Amino acid sequence: MEQLVSRLDFAMFNAILRESAEEMPMDPVSDPISDSKVLPIPAGKSGFAAGAQLKNAIGDWSRWLSDLFSIDDSESCEVTNENDEPKCESSFKPFLLLNALSDLMMLPLDMLADGSTRKEVCPRFGISLIKRVVNNFVPDEFSPGPIPDAVFDALNSEDIEDDVGAITSLPCSAGPTFYAPLPASSILGMLQEAGTKTSLRRGSFALKKLYTSDDELDELDSPLSALGMDEPSTALIKGGRKVVRYELLREAWKSSE
Fold it and tell me: Are residues 12 and 100 in the same domain?
């Protein structure tokens, strides 16, 4: 499940950072979303309101995953002895890219000019990716003013070579998915369950035969009797002419018994 959530994170991240909602997907694996209606915010638009809306959607999805699949993104710390330091184990955190993108969108515009602040808020994003978010900025009621020129000057003066290990191009490539085989105990349980259902079906079929009436068994022995053709003189009229085909079939049926 963690790998599926990670693939969804990459897919929505790449779709939101398109230049417009009409832009077609570029990668069938990392950027497969073709309908922008499934996105939590419009594609090609960034701003404080969009970042807050994205943050709320991520929170709802994370709570849903925690309730349905017991995926917890909190950190648990344990202390074995009094003198020992607490050991914290971080569990799987869903939607890392979308979380970082929402933090970047909600960052005040004047703080984007500070390189240390950008690296603290979104260390995984390179300068070219941050420029894409800034270029997609749309004023809203929470951030109505235009982007200061100092922000563009600071981003243009940054060295791209410093973005080692950061995401610098779109679509961002998702890692391969590894499928682990099912445990032998699970396969054995499914086989036993399938065998139980098969035996139940056979038993129900036997019960149906057991409760079948004698009249129905007689009809099975002579199927034409159900059509009212027991008497040899019975004839079917079709189109004004006598048709004896059914009587011949009846005689052939009896002779084959």
Answer: yes
Do 118 and 221 lie in one domain? The reply is no
Give the tokens for residue 97.
Answer: 């890219």
Per-residue pLDDT reduced to its tens digit, 175-186: 777 777 777 787
In angstroms, the Cα distances linking 188 to 67, 184, 192, 193, 195 are 28, 6, 6, 9, 11
Average pLDDT over residues 28-55: 91
Q: Which comes out higher in pLDDT, residue 240 or 177?
A: 177
Lowest mean pLDDT segment, chosen from 94-98, 115-119, 222-226? 222-226
In a domain, 11, yes or no: yes
DSSP H helical ranges for 122-244: 127-135, 149-157, 184-210, 214-221
Question: Would you call 51 helix, strand, or coil by DSSP?
Answer: helix
Residue 209 has pLDDT above 70, yes or no: no
Q: Structural domain tally of the chain?
A: 2
Q: Report the alpha-carbon distance of residue 139 to residue 46 in Å, rounded.
A: 9
> Where does residue 44 fall: left (phi above 0), alpha (psi -120 to 50 degrees), or beta otherwise?
left
Q: Give the Cα separation of 205 and 212 in Å (integer).
A: 11
The model's pTM = 0.62
Is 164:124 a contact under the CB 8 Å cutoff? Answer: no
Q: Is residue 205 part of a domain?
A: yes
